[in-house]
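TA notes, week 10

Several of you asked for a full example with nothing omitted. So below is the full record: structure tokens for the whole chain, then the designed sequence directly under it. When grading your own attempts, check the secondary structure regions first.
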């Protein structure tokens, strides 16, 4: 091996070390950004919580909620007199779904798609 090969190899190794160092720096920065948003969630038995079933990307129905979900989907319930919580019983099907029946229709829209009209 001549000196040109060793110089080329040394330069390549230095570039690899520089890339690794910059990747570690970027990972550390991203971790610090993520750690600022993380908050410790502590729930005790008997606490009331909200289960968030509408993620940012898509709206989920209760039938699509899995029996096991991440704790990040829970929000602590802070009692408020303006919240009206009805304790009416709900008839659940064998697959834990229920039929929701509207009490009053407040608005009606008709969408026209090509030649079809959909209410």
């Amino acid at each position: 091996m001549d000196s040109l090969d060793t110089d080329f190899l040394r330069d390549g190794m230095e570039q690899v070390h520089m890339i690794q160092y910059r990747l570690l720096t970027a990972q550390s920065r991203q971790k610090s950004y993520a750690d600022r948003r993380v908050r410790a969630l502590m729930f005790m038995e008997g606490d009331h919580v909200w289960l968030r079933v509408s993620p940012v990307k898509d709206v989920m129905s209760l039938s699509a909620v899995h029996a096991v979900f991440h704790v990040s989907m829970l929000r602590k319930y802070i009692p408020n007199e303006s919240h009206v919580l009805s304790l009416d019983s709900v008839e659940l099907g064998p697959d834990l779904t229920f039929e929701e029946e509207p009490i009053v229709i407040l608005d009606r829209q008709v969408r026209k798609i090509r030649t079809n009209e959909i209410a």
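The mean pLDDT is 81. Use that as a sanity check on your answer.
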